[in-house]
Amino acid sequence: MLKPIEHLKFYEQWHRYRFKDSWLARSVTQILSFDLTEEAKHWINVTKDGPDGWKLRGETVHNILENKLRGRDQEIEDRWRSWTDPLFDCDVFRGAEVMATEYRLCEPTKSMGGSFDFLLYKPGGEIIIGDLKTSSKSGFKRRKAATAQLGAYTAMMQKRHPSVVIDTCATVVSGPGECRVISEDPAKCIETWLDKQDEYECQKKRRW
Question: Where in the sequence is the domain holding 21, given as residue range(s)?
Fold first, then answer.
């Protein structure tokens, strides 16, 4: 397993990162969502909470996957098995050695933190960095790749762990009764991330 970055802590209750003695000002997620429309924000909030909301579903399925990848014993409620059974059977995990799960990263020069869901070593030598997205039945086919997000993690990995050469960025979309993997070139993902970061910085300057 990949060693954690020393002095980097994540405080889940606030979704904040702290590196050494300083709070990091932003997360990858905050940068990627800076230009969401008011309508998009509205629907995110409307569908977030409650027993059928995306927050509980996402947190639960992410925790179940992490436990599975770490080989921990767990009991899975029946209501989640329509998501987790196809997820566990997904080819991206088959035969893979787990290098990291829920791994915390940071870029102190940008005062930024982020966490990716998994890093896998496949038979044959392929290294895959991945992000899990859960979806309702109706939204499954519309779920897009986490291109810029994975680009951010890959760029930070290159700085923190240059000996780990990532071959594939994978967005794993988990829906009730189905699962699919969107594989992308890491160079394309990094380019998309850098473009998004530039847009974010320009927007900040305009506000000043």
Answer: 8-207
The 22-23 sheet, strands edge to edge? 8-11, 16-19, 22-23
> How many structural domains are present in the chain?
1
Q: Give mean pLDDT in consecutive 10-residue pieces for the chain, a chain of 208 residues.
A: 95 94 94 83 78 89 97 95 96 96 96 97 97 92 94 97 97 96 98 94 71
Q: How far apart are CA 163 and CA 160, in angstroms?
A: 9
Which CATH number covers residue 117? 3.90.320
Q: In angstroms, rounded to a whole number, what is the distance separating the alpha carbons of residues 173 and 192?
A: 20
Domain membership of residue 2 (yes or no) is: no
Tokens 């392929």: give the residue.
126
